[in-house]
């Protein structure tokens, strides 16, 4: 593998960089803008991205490009069709951040259930610094909370993260139901999850909804006003998957109208979002900057898995986490002269 070059659009955990450096020259771009990346990609054999888009223009500029590695699970920022057409293998890290994202979803549910946004802000603003016991004032001002025990969690998607979240909520005595037409019955049965045959069945009378599907043309605005209206008015929506899955205008209206009680959003239709995004103004919305997978262990896992995938491809070995299997077996990139 002498003479090979791997271009990183952004730094990753050092353990992943060290793995790559043992097999190739590693170059980290000064910033992930397309116009800066294109000159650097011209002689690169591999491209490693995080949330940066891997466009057809970038792929066309990479005359030696053999593999694109995605530091994460989502593939919506990669032109997968273009990569496959050009014979470029795409690898990702579908299992590396499973627990991190599931834990974030559970924390978000608890945060919403306990009114932390509203109660903490009111406390900091001095609303509780008056006569009377604090518990009495909590009840007086309407900041009483709900317990998760006995409540219904609806899952849209039943992949790795949703299955892990199901395990986490089992001790909490929650009823769990889910919709995923691509997953077989055995997965639902093994997880002890009630299968819904439509997305409406998940939302109907749910206390919490957690979204766990990839973004695509089929899942764009999968959740809109119709689905939100089916929930209890005390219900909350959790989104740790991709922003475009929820119609943000419909969500904004539902939150303002009291159709649902709250939402916890780690992802947004536009990232980074505008500083004046209307959802930022609501105190019944918890917002975090796409950080569900940004734990110490998940960052190492993603770096290691994507590095291993890139190395496997460059060594002409079928990678464990191959995103476009149709390209494997094609000789197009192997025939490129280095």
Explain this structure to me?
By secondary structure, the protein is an alpha/beta fold. The chain folds into two domains: 5-96 and 296-327, 3-Layer(aba) Sandwich (Rossmann fold), CATH 3.40.50; 98-287, 3-Layer(aba) Sandwich (Rossmann fold). It has 13 helices and twelve strands. Strands 8-7-6-9-10-11-12 form a seven-stranded parallel β-sheet. α11 links the parallel β9 (208-211) and β10 (236-239). α1 (14-21) runs parallel beside α13 (296-314) and α5 (98-113) crosses α8. It starts with a strand and ends in a 24-residue tail after the last helix. The model is unreliable at 333-338 (pLDDT under 50).
Lateral strand order in the biggest sheet: 8-7-6-9-10-11-12
Mean pLDDT: 94
Number of helices: 13
Oligomer: single chain
**In terms of structural class, how would the helical and strand content be classed?**
alpha/beta
Number of structural units classed as domains: 2
Name given to the CATH architecture of the largest domain: 3-Layer(aba) Sandwich
Q: What percentage of the residues does DSSP assign to strands (E)?
A: 5-15%
Biggest beta-sheet profile: 7 strands, parallel
CATH class group of the largest domain: Alpha Beta
- Stretches with pLDDT under 50, minimum 5 residues: 333-338
Supply the CATH superfamily name of the largest domain.
NAD(P)-binding Rossmann-like Domain
Q: What value does the Rg take, in angstroms?
A: 22 Å
Distance between the termini: 11 Å
Order of SSEs, N→C? EHEHEHEHEHHHEHEHEHEHEHEEH
Annotation, overall tally of beta strands: 12
Shape: elongated
Helix percent band: 25-40%
Q: Which fold name fills CATH's third level, the topology of the largest domain?
A: Rossmann fold
